[in-house]
Amino acid sequence: xxxSRPQRMLKAVQKNATKGDPQxxxxxxxYYCRHKEWAxxxxxxxxxxxxxxxxxxxPSTALELGTYCGYSTVRIARLLSPGSKLITVEFNPAYxxxxxxxxxxxxxxxxxxLVEGGSGDLIPKIKEQFGITSFDFVFLDHWKDRYLxxxxxxxxxxxxxxxxxxxxxxxxxxxxxxxxEYVRNSPRYKSQYFQSYLEYTKxxxxxxxxxxLG
Length: 214
Ligand SMILES: Cc1cc(C(=O)N2CCN(C)CC2)sc1-c1cc(O)c2nc[nH]c(=O)c2c1
Ligand SMILES: [Mg+2]
Hints:
The chain is of the alpha/beta class. It is built from 10 helices and 7 strands. Strands 3-2-1-4-5-7-6 form a 7-stranded mixed beta sheet, sandwiched between helices. Helix 1 (about 5-15) packs across helix 2. Bound molecules: the ligand Cc1cc(C(=O)N2CCN(C)CC2)sc1-c1cc(O)c2nc[nH]c(=O)c2c1 and magnesium ion. Ligand 7JK binds near residues 141, 142, 143, 170 and 173.
C-alpha cells in the first residue's frame, strides 16, 4: 500500500526544504498540507499564535504532548534560547519515526528530546529521567480526552510552578469541553482564548492559553 501520509509529508520536506533551515521545513509542510493533502499540524493560522506565546514565555524547559510529524516541535524549538530544552511525547511509533527525521532536517535535534509512549505513563517519570523540576511551557496537542487528566497529572507530579504557561490546541475542533471548563473555572488558572481556524481550513478552532497561578 505504499507510503503513509506522514511518510509522504517527510518526502515533501526532504525534497523542498533546506537542511538546517527550520523556516523552510515549516513552509514545506504548510504548502504540502494546504495544496496536496491535509494533515493535523497546528498549521499556519494557529502557528503564529503558538510562536508569539513561546516567544513571550521564552521557556528554559518546554513540554509538548503530541509530536505527530514534528511540525509544532520545529515551530517551538526554533524559538528556544541556547541551552533550553523541549521534551516532546508521541504515542505512535510510526509518527515518532517521521518526526525524528523532520526535526533532524530542521537541524533542531540537539534542542529536542522525543520520547515514545503514552503521556499518562511518561509524565510521572520525567523528573527522574530528565532531571527537570518544572516546565515553563506546555503545548497540549495529543488527544482531546487526555488534556484534563494530563494537566492534573502535571500538577500532582509538581511539574508546574507559579507562572507556568499551558497552551492547548483544538479546544473548538475537535473540541475539549471538559478541559476548557476546568481551566476557565479553576482558581488555579488564568485562561485566555485565541480564536483562529482549524489548520488549512475555514472551520473555527482556537488555542487556549492558561497560566498556572500556583
Ligand atoms: C483528525 C482531525 C480531523 C479534523 C476535521 O475536523 N476535519 C474536517 C476537515 N477536513 C479537511 C480535515 C478533517 S480535526 C482533526 C484533528 C486536528 C488536530 O489539530 C489534532 N491535534 C492533535 N490530535 C488530534 O487528534 C487532532 C485531530
Ligand atoms: Mg492539533
